[in-house]
Structures
1.
Amino acid sequence: MDVRSQISMVFHLDKCIGCHTCSIACKNIWTDRKGAEYMWWNNVETKPGTGYPSKWEDQTIYRGGWEKNNGSISLKGSGKFKGLANIFHNPYLPVIDDYYEPWTYKYLDLIESPELDDQPVARPVSLITGKPIDIKAGPNWDDDLSGTPDYARNDPNLENLSPAEQEAMFQLEKMAMFYLPRICNHCLNPACVASCPSGAIYKRGEDGIVLINQNVCRAWRMCVTACPYKKSYYNWHTGKSEKCILCYPRLEAGLTPACMHSCVGRIRYLGVMLYDADRIHEAASADDNHLIEKQLDIILDPFDEKVIAAAKANGIADSTLLAAQNSPIYKFVKEWGLALPLHPEFRTLPMLFYVPPLLPVMASLSDAKNGAQNDKLNPIAKRWDDNWLYDTSTEELWGTIEKARFPLQYMANLFGAGDTSKISPILKKMMAVRIHRRSVTVGDLSAEKVNSALTDTGLSPEQADAIYALTSLAKFDERFVIPPAHREQAIEMLESTADEKGSTGFGFKERPARGV
Amino acid sequence: MLYTSFKNYNEKLLTFTILLSLIFNLSEFLYPQSAGETTFKGICQACHTIGKGRLVGPDLINIQDLRTESWLIKFIRSSQSMVNSGDADAVAIFNEYNKTIMPDQNLSDAEIKDVLSYIKQQSTGAVVTEVQPIVLSTGLTLEQARDNEFTIGRKIFSGEQRLTNGGPACISCHNVLNDEVMSGGLLALDLTNAVTRLGVNGVHSIISSPPFPVMKAAYSNHLVTSDESFYLTAFLKNADFVVSLQEPAAPQQIFLYAGIIGGAVLFGVYGTIWWNRKRKSVNDSIFKRQLKSI
Amino acid sequence: MTILNNFLFIALPYIALIVFLIGTIYRYKSKKFKYSSLSSEFLEGRKLFWGSVPFHYGIVFLFFGHLTAFLFPREVLLWNSHPVRLLILEVTAFIFGITTFVGLIHLFIRRKTNPRVQMVTNKMDLIIEVLLIAEIFLGLWIAYGYRWGSSWFASVLSPYLISVFTLNPQIEPIINLPLVIQLHIATAFLIVLLIPFSRLVHFLVFPLSYLWRPYQKVIWNWNRKKVRNPRSVWSVNKSRNN
């Protein structure tokens, strides 16, 4: 057992309102530089939708991630021989038009324009060429456009949905959507690291953050292809790849990453997880329908005496162990089984987990030809001629989940490698928590019903309360449990202070010498 | 810091060493230590004899009595510029020897004078008009050479039979119009009529000790043996003779066409190997539909 | 003429080699960030395919062809001793030469006409590209006009190059070669000279080591066991990450 620690995250999609505050916080800190304008280390997508870059999930186009063959795994679009053979022209590289051409406006024209018959306008100019452009696409161009043919219907996750199910999703009054915020998953089996010919990308041993050494990167561009989440971006100006650094300078100082700190919906959780590095390959090469359990399997119980002993033997600090025990991530992922990795079938073992959204599911569709449904309507309200009806009641318990207007299969394609049986227990648990809390706060549900809901999902009332508390009431320190970086033992995480004493400036460090 | 300065010191040392050796070798190159004899044997001997008859060029016996020293220095330096400037003697010699160009020699006055004094020193005895006959080690003379010898010569010429001392095959640089030999190189002169132009003795002498700098460089460490010179001379003599009876395919543009067609095929191969490459943006259809203001 | 010849074939090679050696090492040590292939495929990938692939595969073939003739002249002559094999070698090299040339011309046109690629083009890129075009054109001319170069390279140019590297340059055969070949040689050394000042350095860091490194790479900033051991000495070593 090779116990290592990993900074891991949970995004609670039920709470995401799609405000993009996270993206802006990230952009302002890290990517408002030349060549990085188009990079959104953090972005928020509307699902169903094509995402950013367009159709990033479609690996027949981009060839990202790993694929299983003969019991082992290999990189889909790169790898040792394929990568070197394709080094002169990477055949699957996304180009700038798959993202968008970054632009700004000539604001000065608004102010300094002479008096004319017409209003002055600020023309958009390209941030690449500096020439006026027609804006063709933007970073969140499919925002809230669920149902549109260009975006929602081109969503790769609709693949194995029946045409009827797909049609149902896009009818105006039935349409539903949710938001999917994405950052780098800081995977346990990162494809970007494996694909980098120069060896510039590495996983930090201490906290599992995946970083690109800018001095070693040589612009061979394989990581951009290899990352199935398209979270490695090529800086066209510097000729280096860049990616989310999980705000490691902030983490080392005990601060939360900017996107998480700024999250308005408080959907983000961050904490430490312990895992067994010896079994990474085994977990990554599991069968499609066992991928999730195998991945959760190598995540270790931080309360287990054996795990603690092995962790200490491996040099993991006591403070890190304590953080692992208090980790909200461990609770969501392992204890309650509420969170799943995004697209586990890419086999990178992502360490960012998502609690699937219940809200678009909750309003179910029922065949409402019978009078009972119609009678449930307020007599003043219009009687629907349609033979379907939204049912947002909790009376049927799980009926709303099974017959959701948002097909479970779609959620399963996102979070369960296509297996709906991975999704429905989670949604049932979340529904059970609601039923339980409704009986606590409102008290209009029968105890029998509440009990059966809890026992069906295997939750105790205490657990349900704990889930409720961490979901709805959690304070900053409960959502973010950051282990100390232990600078006192390491002097500095990255540099020896004594070496750099007398140096100056940000970025490149030089001696403060006078003259040339 | 210590490491950095050490590194710089190393670099400086390396640079200095290289520069130093460069200077030494340059001086050695620019002022070679050579007496007239070595120069004559190294450069002149291929085309000229002293008292043993004419080869490619005239016999140089008693040359100091025929021409002035300044004329000789000028001629040795650059015979062609003298011919072009209309010097009567130079033009006469040029025409007498089938307009064979004597290569310019990059020699100093002192070196040329050394050579001339060597020639003067050697100019004893009677002038011989007939040169030594060319014979094979078995005693076979050139006149007796037949198909068998011609074939061996052809194989040596085309490289099918390697030169004993590892020199490059003649075909690398020379072309000969012959049915049985493929088109040769174009770096040096066409040898189809070499025997007519230079005579068998001249050809043999040039093969044995090449006077032309490039050829000299190629064979200086890979001398052609006397038997090989014999076979080659025999082949060239025969080739010169039979060319009028044959209709060899003139050097064609096949090479060029093969390159162009092959290049096109290679492009096709690249296109096939990467047939499944991503050709356009996934947003292409959306972009194309949009109205353009620019 | 002597001065010019001495400059082109004695001084230039040494200047080029020294500048190349010191320049590339200095740049690698002190400006590592600037070692990059500076790919522009991200800005324009479609046309790049028909330029970059034929050019790179061609230039790699030609480079190793020249290198082989330089390092193993005897073996090349042995291979060429059969006319058919000579023909195969020459025609193959010529084909790669033509695709390299066409690919490079294509790359040059793309660089000059695509507005996005223009934004990531500097003067040195253009100088290098023009020099390479000239060099490859001269090479094709030599292959066509002074054919069977693979043989005479091995017997005439290899000795010259070896004499350069053994610090005893013999230029006598070189200065008597046709002007085209002389230009080809001089341009080659000029390109070598410019390598440390251009993007060409990227071929020096071709990631061959990728073939034998494990796929995953984990770096601990310090020895994680030692750093937590109170009895270990405090080390002035830099973290392994830096």
Note: Confidence is low (pLDDT under 50) at residues 1-9, 27-33 of chain B.
2.
Amino acid sequence: MTELKHYFAPTSLDQAVECLKDGDVTILAGGTDLTPQSQAGRLKIKHTLMNIRHIPQLSGITLEGKEIRIGTLTTITEIMQHPLIRQHLPVLADACDHFASDQIRNAATLGGNICNASPAGDTLIPLLVLDASVELASMPEAKLYRHSMPLSTFFVGPGKTRRSLCELVTCIRIPLPAEGHVARFHKLGTRPALDISTISIGIAGTLKAGILSNVRVAFGAVAPTPVRASQTEKALEGQRLDAATIEKAAEVAHNEVKPIDDVRASAWYRKEMIHNITKRILSHVAQA
Amino acid sequence: MSLKHDIEFTLNGVKRRVTVDVTMTALAMLRDVIGLTGTKYGCGEGECGACTIQVDGMSLNSCLMFAVDCDGRNVTTIEGLANDSKADALREAFVEHGAVQCGFCTPGMIMQADHLVRNECCGDTESIKRGIEGNLCRCTGYKKIVDAIASVSGAQN
């Protein structure tokens, strides 16, 4: 890896992916993760620092057919306040409301939160239970090439994703939820603001006549990446959401996660909280 | 030699051209290159809010921003509020309510309060408290700070 030799602020997507071709590029968006990581020496900026702020098509929230598209540069504040998100995806607005502080929400971008790939990333859990997909752009030949992958397959480790060095995340797509959709997010930390989650939980599904289906459950800060909890999902799928189902699901969740001890909490505490908060969220959904 | 880049932006209403290190933060540029030291370095990682500035009308932490990212944008620092009637009211309220103790958090606190007042984000004291979650006061004088902001925004309870 070479020293930083070049600063580039493209104004079109084509210019940006062209620049990414050689792979030796650090991408700057909101800067709220990149700045402290590079200042503290935890991250070395590559040959080129590319600031993608001036590419208009990377911003904004739109309804496209049966999907909501959120541009990679959209800030957390913009997501939290946008009428489309508040109407169709309130669980995402709720998670954004728990994100860091006002100043950081005003600068941090959705694409940045995804590519930083923290196991505790606040937007990642609601996005996983909303079945979001990531769109990536690159220029393998002379033409712009786009492809998508489910967010659930995007993360491979702390700070590591399946984005190749030649690719740029351009947007996130979220299918419009079906009728009867319910979704909840809970972030557990030691203080409400500027906290990295001890654990976080997202649960979504379709609730019809007391029966929960299309269940998606995701947990944050209990594994090297944000994770979907397939066993917990199975314990809930097609079940009547009564006290027995809820207790069973909470137990399955407790056994399914394999957290570690670290500065924020012990593995034991994390497992207990996964159990208790899964139970609490499901009880609230059942009573709503 | 560190890589340099020329940028042009509006700082407190005046167009500026500056040559900055590409890896430098906006905070370091304001303090060390331009010489505006009203914006404070507290933690350097976005936890304390002492370095809060406004960029294109939004408050943010200048320690979490690359200086090069100011290019083409509209930046306001605490010095830029010196001749601003809305900010006058805030400044007077801080004095009147004794909301300044050691004073180190004050510039960041005023920048954030100004952002909240302008965007009408502080209709009650609860929203003021949420709004200043990203600003720490080590003297812990939060009650007076919240009272001062409430007196300007007209917030009840």
Note: The CA atoms of residues 113 and 149 of chain B lie 7 Å apart.
3.
Amino acid sequence: MTTPAAVSRQERESALIAAILDGDREKFHDLIRPYERQVYLTALSLVKNETEAEDVAQEAILRAYRKLASFRGDAKFSTWLIAITLNEARTRLRDEKRVLLDSLDNQNLENGDYTPAALTDWREVPLEALERLEIRALLGQAVAALPAAFREVVVLRDMEELSVNETAEALGISIALVKVRLHRARLLLQKRLAPQLRIELKSRKKSGILQRLPWF
Amino acid sequence: MVLKCRHVWDHISDYIEGTLDPAVRADVEKHLAHCEICSAVLDSTRNVIILIADDRVFELPVDFSKRLHARLDMVLATESPEPG
């Protein structure tokens, strides 16, 4: 979807890129600032460790600066940047020979049978609940526990809110595969989180009542 | 077509994306209207997606931005982008 805001962002970025390539290097700070979080999350989706993710994010951004002249305006700058970040993270993993193990873990997941957590008494956790550290930790752990191929798709589509097409482009996989992985990943998250969040909220409710009733 | 719960689960992600074929969508909605389990699965899946999208779930490390721009400063001061 190309909204007027997206068009003006793209124009602004094209102007910044032209200026940087023309010698106004300092403008790279402005070009990158809106995407810091996205780059970090993308790195974290693969390396799973905050220090390493920061390192990958920095290296990817430096690489984007050095290779800026090779950016063609036919893709979005953000998609290009994310592809660089994924590449950087994968190179790192390959060096550490972790990729092979992870890809073995992923076998058969895309075809497996799946049963969601059918808990009819839990439907919604309000966003306010995210003020609580335990709830944030449960969600973070659930995403981190996904197999890598699923985690990448969830991070790009559901957390960074790229479109399905952009996710496919950044990962270099087909749109159909993005959809399959996204579906499995979302149901895996639901299956794990629904019971956990339900317990977390129930215990909270009870202790809330206990706190309000002085005779307990 | 009358769908079983298992078939409805297969469509949950596309249903949330809004990319289901209209005929299938109508069948799914028909099922959801009377199946409490499937409508709870749909609601909780949708809720999980909303929750993980929140910036508070994964926060940037403290001073991430400061360290990044300091490092950029060093590189920008000494290097131009490579020629295309």
Note: Chain A has two domains: 1-98, 114-216.
4.
Amino acid sequence: MNLFWQILIDGFIISSIYAVGVVGFSLVFGTAGVLNLSHGALLVVSAIFFWFFVSNFHIPLVLGMAGGIIISVIVSYLLFIIVINPIDKSKKIPQDEKEVFVLTATLLWSMIIEEILIYFFSSNPVVAPPFVKGVLKIFNMNITCNEILLSLSSIVILILLWLFINKTRTGKILLAASMSHDGLAISGIDLKKVYITLWGVYGILTGVSGALLASFLGASPSSAGPLTGLAFSVVVLGGLGNITGSIIAAFLIGYIQTMTAYLISPAYTPIPAYVILILILMFKPKGLFGRF
Amino acid sequence: MRYLKLLVFIVGLVFISTSAALAVRPINVAIIAEEGTLVGDAIVNGAKLAVKQINAKGGVDGKPIKLFIYDDHMKATDAVQAFQRAVYDHHVVAVIGSWISEIALSLEPWAARLHTIYITTGAASPKITEKVHKNYRRYKYIFQLKYNAIEMAKTVCNFIHDDLANYHYKTAYVASENAAWTQPLDEEYLKCLPKIGIKVVGHLRFSPNTTDFTPIFSKIKAKNPDILITGWAHTGLQETVQWHEEKLPFLIVGINAQASTSDFWKKSNGATEGIITQAEGSPAPITSKTIPFVKSYEKMYNITPAYGGYTTYDAMYILANAIKKAKTTNTNKLIKALEATNYVGVMGHIKFYPKSSPFAHGIVYKKGLATGVMLQWQHGKLETVWPSYAATAKVFIPPFVKK
């Protein structure tokens, strides 16, 4: 019985952090059609800068987190201005090959960020200080108050994102963009402004997620690849561009990993999730919940 | 006649400049390391510091040492390419470095094929020297200037026996990351712990990519051990932070390579308080050379050395001495000179095991020669707690750990 509660609680904590970490990846693919392979690098950027501001300038955690988010927004816009937009506007690249070019360019962008981070911060991992201290004993488990706070914050962020997309005009435009760019253009909406909003929202989302990751799991430049891999797996499992599907898939993968660690061995934690992913790709290529 | 004078002048000029060039031809040495990692950076820094000092004193018999530094990006393929480049392009006398056993093992066949001396100053797998023992003629080029994993486990057990006896700890759980060097480490832990009266209540190995240690700590906590025995090098930070934040009641003792340098306090936001780890060296009077070395290193790099700094610094001096003794850079003669090493360095009194030993060309692990040290983070400072002659503080038990 104790094991059941351990898996339930631990799985919920890790899954909620995964969900908030991958939702930006899904949003950008759904809205702009960009499969951003530098997603993990963006998460790591904000995580490392959050740690850097707090440990070097001894500022309050919230300010450090804000610093990390600002850097993440800047890197997000740089990605759009330097990488995505020029490929999108290029007349030399055939239209049907642009996706491959974007895929390659974002991968290279990720590698550039990773090398820059290693140069300035080394490849050693860092962990940001906890937002709150203390331990709660639930079902004979030691759960830190910080983990509970991070998990609840992740749920609040997901709810706020849902409200933003479904209840605000800007969010509805982003939602419409995920359905048809042509339709938006006909309605007289400036696509450029849509993109500017999208990459700003994406930067904020990755900034917040990166800070949460830094406080719970820690981060190093070499985490960029595995984080992108995780986001990719979750989004494929949930259905490319389907935000709700991605959130459910994040919980599925989080729980599968937790069950593997508890019931089989911590040495094989990622393996069953990847096997399931391959099976989904083979038998349900549009993911569990399909695309928008 | 005028043309003849001019010809003589030109020939003379060419002769003088060639002789001058030959006279100062440096001794090329390659460093292959994982730059950007704590231990990899320490390998590079230790080598640079030693070379700076050796060259400042006139080099090796008047010849300066020139370093060629390669970053292998923690990949065996990059390391092999670097090894080949070092030999073919830079004609190095020896290659030093790498703290990853998988990489050191992948370089061994190349050292044998290219007849080039390779000294690993960071990799701990005993398989490295086992090859030398089993096929000396082929693998005589390889040296391991670092305690192997079996000896590291022995150090941990000796420390528990000597320094933790007063606390009457009876049980331990062994948890190591999955890597080549931790297999023999764990095997030795499982052998040596019962011998010192510690019952092993559990043993697990986890993926080096693990970031969430909650399930692992839950498993460990269920067995209620007094001590958690570790084998961590690729990992270390997340476990340390989670242990500290969850206030888990067992003491962490073993190998936590990342915790062996001053930077770790900042990286873990002080969560490393109370962590005990084995290391090759520390800012302590291990020998008369240790503290001056640490001071010079800190002055130059603003950080205390990780273990790779101690080993590589000694490796550079041992190589320089061997060249002096052999009076040549001929590989076979140099191997003989290295085998005869009897050198007091910063990590202890260094001798290499003979080819008859299963650890052939590894450093002799013995009380009175070199045994390594045990370090503990105490109030933001990395203290040496074992062996007694080098200790700078006594063991401290964190308040949330059972006593």
Note: Chain A has one domain: 2-283.
